[in-house]
């Protein structure tokens, strides 16, 4: 790649001792200026690196840069010279040389910057997002965005090598029940009607399979009007969306696993789960790990020990057990040597998370201790030791709650214990598939049957299962791929049969007319011959977040929104004019002020 132009003969990261004696031209930003009494040093920075430039007090260029602030843009012409051995900077690609300045041309003067680029000083996120163009100049964030580009390029190459073709699907489309709110776009030509920005290209990629294309992918933008989380950006995100025809669930796994394994191996030196990735049923994931996104770096597992406490020997658990509650135990190897205040702090943490507390027994060298040890007879303690495989020095922690809450709470405790006892292997990317998700679930508020995952999935057992089974017992050909406790993707083998789709939606409360109105395009296509097909959609942002070893997804996105879904740089969302509203056939109705307790 040639960078030669009127502004530069080399980049600021290209020169070395082999260029000594050459006259070169560089352009970039003033990263730092230093006056060492007779010598002025400028660190010049561009996308590729940093080069030190030097001039003495007699150089007329010294006056040209005296009043320039850092981040001004200049073009420097000068001779490459070798640094003295004691001034070589091994941390720089150009650290063996410097430029003796012969001429400087100021290309753009900078104001005083509100966000120093040449510092790793922490700044409030609001400041960083409002001046994101400055924030993006800072080395760490700049390199993460470059990494993101490299990862996406690698994904494309790997998908094409697997025989996938890249297609683009519409951005303006109709609403779809993906489980989140749509972003709506009013239609000027069709008063009172709205487009929806796609939550995912779900229907279109299925239609591509019906159209006879065999393997599709795209780096797809998706839009969801939902709240931000550390691993989810509000507004929009990107995913590796792909679909395949004439495939089973196993065929999908075999296609994407080498792509992900190769990608993580390319961009990280950590260990990676060997192929094929392990598969865990949804039921086992919840039973053993308390989560459908299990972090398999964590060696702790949950044990149901309700039976030990059903005789009422421990009165504190009995009110919950009488209501159908359960008791989960977690064994921590060699976890009995912490001071008492440590275990009490865990108890307080569980209460903060909405639990009733955290019971524990310590099997230390000085005997068995802990609140439950005092309340339980030796026969019960021996039963717990046998059930959980307790060894000398271990500890047992207990979570008791309602049947609806205990699994999730125990899963949080499992992860907290692994963090506190430093049991999580930080040097591995641990992948797994979670399979056999329930097709339906019961809404706790309404008691109605709803789709639990993806309404377009094929139920296991097909139409016969829908006709003969309890809906809550039906499983689907749905799967998630999880890495280090982060869900990278949901996917499914699709329901490509109209009669199965009608019945599946009927159980979830949709009439045939509802199905035809909402999904008429795809349903009609299925009536003209549709292949069995399935796919998946790993999240690009989350993949980059993992490979960059960042906990906040906004650190791997060039222009993210705030947690309140605001773009502080471009001032979005913003108001529009009455004329524009009239053109779109819209009238604003502002919400009433929120009432206070004193109103």
Descriptive labels:
599 residues, alpha+beta, 8-stranded mixed beta sheet, 5-stranded mixed beta barrel, 29% helix, 24% strand, globular
- Count of distinct strands: 24
Class computed from helices, strands and strand pairing = alpha+beta
Strand order of the largest sheet: 6-9-10-24-23-22-19-12
- Total helices: the number is 18
Q: Roughly how many Å is the radius of gyration?
A: 30 Å
Q: Between the first and last Cα atoms, what is the distance in angstroms?
A: 68 Å
Share of residues in helices: 25-40%
Instruction: Give the mean pLDDT.
Output: 93
Flag low-confidence runs.
Answer: none
**Biggest β-sheet description:** 8 strands, mixed
Strand content: 15-25%
Shape: globular
What's the topology here?
Elements: E1 23-35, E2 39-46, E3 49-56, H1 61-66, E4 73-82, E5 97-108, H2 125-130, H3 132-135, H4 139-161, E6 165-166, E7 184-186, E8 194-196, H5 202-210, E9 215-224, E10 235-245, H6 249-267, E11 271-272, E12 279-281, H7 282-289, E13 302-304, H8 306-309, H9 318-322, E14 326-332, H10 340-352, E15 359-364, E16 367-369, H11 371-375, H12 378-388, E17 395-401, H13 406-420, E18 428-429, E19 431-435, E20 440-442, E21 449-451, H14 462-468, E22 478-483, E23 486-493, H15 498-507, H16 512-526, E24 533-536, H17 540-547, H18 578-583
Parallel strand pairs: 3-5, 6-9, 11-18, 12-19
Antiparallel strand pairs: 1-2, 1-4, 2-3, 4-5, 7-8, 9-10, 10-24, 13-14, 14-17, 15-16, 15-17, 19-22, 20-21, 22-23, 23-24
Helix pairs in contact: 4-6, 5-16, 14-15, 15-16
């Amino acid at each position: 790649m040639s960078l030669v132009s009127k502004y530069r003969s080399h980049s600021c990261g290209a020169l070395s001792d082999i260029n000594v004696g050459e006259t070169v031209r560089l352009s970039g930003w003033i990263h730092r200026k230093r006056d060492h009494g007779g010598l002025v040093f400028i660190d010049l920075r561009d996308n590729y690196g940093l080069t030190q430039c030097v001039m003495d007090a007699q150089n007329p260029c010294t006056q040209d840069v005296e009043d320039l602030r850092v981040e001004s843009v200049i073009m420097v012409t000068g001779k490459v010279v070798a640094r003295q051995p004691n001034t070589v900077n091994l941390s720089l690609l150009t650290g063996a040389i410097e430029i003796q300045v012969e001429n400087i041309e100021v290309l753009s003067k900078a104001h005083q910057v509100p966000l120093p680029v040449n510092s790793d000083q922490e700044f409030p996120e609001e400041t960083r997002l409002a001046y994101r163009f400055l924030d993006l100049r800072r080395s760490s964030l700049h390199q993460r965005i470059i990494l993101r580009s490299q990862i996406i390029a690698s994904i494309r190459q790997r998908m094409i090598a697997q025989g996938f073709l890249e297609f683009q699907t519409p951005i303006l489309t109709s609403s779809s029940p993906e489980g989140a709110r749509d972003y709506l776009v009013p239609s000027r030509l069709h008063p009172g009607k709205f487009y929806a920005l796609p939550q995912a290209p779900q229907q279109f990629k299925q239609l591509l399979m019906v159209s006879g294309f065999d393997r599709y992918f795209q780096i797809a933008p998706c839009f969801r009007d939902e709240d931000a989380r550390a691993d989810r950006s509000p507004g929009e995100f990107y995913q590796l969306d792909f679909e395949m025809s004439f495939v089973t669930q196993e065929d999908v796994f075999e296609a994407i696993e080498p792509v992900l394994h190769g990608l993580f191996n390319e961009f990280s030196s950590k260990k990676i789960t060997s192929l094929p990735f392990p598969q865990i049923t949804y039921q086992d994931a919840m039973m053993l790990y308390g989560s459908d996104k299990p972090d398999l770096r964590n060696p702790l597992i949950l044990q149901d020990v309700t039976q030990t406490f059903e005789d009422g020997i421990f009165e504190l658990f009995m009110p919950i057990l009488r209501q159908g509650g359960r008791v989960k135990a977690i064994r921590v190897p060699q976890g009995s040597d912490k001071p008492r205040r440590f275990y009490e702090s865990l108890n307080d943490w569980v209460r903060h998370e909405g639990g009733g507390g955290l019971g524990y027994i310590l099997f230390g060298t000085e005997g068995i201790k802990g609140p439950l040890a005092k309340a339980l007879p030796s026969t019960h303690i021996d039963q717990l030791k046998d059930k959980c495989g307790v060894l000398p020095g271990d500890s047992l922690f207990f979570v008791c709650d309602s049947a609806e809450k205990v699994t999730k709470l125990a899963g949080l405790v499992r992860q907290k214990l692994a963090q506190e006892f430093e049991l999580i292997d930080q040097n591995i990317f641990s992948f797994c598939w979670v399979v056999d998700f329930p097709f339906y679930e019961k809404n706790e508020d309404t008691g109605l049957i709803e789709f639990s995952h993806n309404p377009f999935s094929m139920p296991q057992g097909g139409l016969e299962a829908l006709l003969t089974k309890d809906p809550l017992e039906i499983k689907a050909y749905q799967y998630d791929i999880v890495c280090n406790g982060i869900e990278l993707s949901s996917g499914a083998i699709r329901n490509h049969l109209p009669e199965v789709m009608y019945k599946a939606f009927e159980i979830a409360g949709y009439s045939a007319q509802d199905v035809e109105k909402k999904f008429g395009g795809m349903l009609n296509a299925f009536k003209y011959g549709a292949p069995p097909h399935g796919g998946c959609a790993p999240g690009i942002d989350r993949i980059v977040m993992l490979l960059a070893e960042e906990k906040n997804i906004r650190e791997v996105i060039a222009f993210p929104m705030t947690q309140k879904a605001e773009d502080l740089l471009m001032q979005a969302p913003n108001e529009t004019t009455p004329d524009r509203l009239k053109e779109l056939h819209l009238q604003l109705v502002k919400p009433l002020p929120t009432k206070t307790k004193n109103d």
